[in-house]
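This entry is passed on directly below:
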Amino acid sequence: MSNEHSEPGHGDSPAAWTAVVVMLIGFAVGTAALFLDATYDVQLMWLVWVGAVIVVLGLLIGAVLAKLGYGVRGSRYAAKADNG
C-alpha cells in the first residue's frame, strides 16, 4: 500500500473552509427565515434574500482567498501530513 496521493485535494484549505462556513451561515439564515415566515406569519422574505446574498458572498470570499494563495495549490497554503 502506498500513502501517495495523486489527487490535488478536496478543498482542505483555508479558502475552502472559509467559503463553506460562510455559505452554511447563509443557508441557516435563509432556512430560519423561511421557517419563521411560514410558522409565525411574519414577513421575513427579505431575510431569506439576505441569506442568499450571504451564500453568494461565501462563494466570492472563497474565490478571492484562493486567488490570494490560500487555496489547495496556493503559495500560502501548507498541506498537513497525512497520517492515515
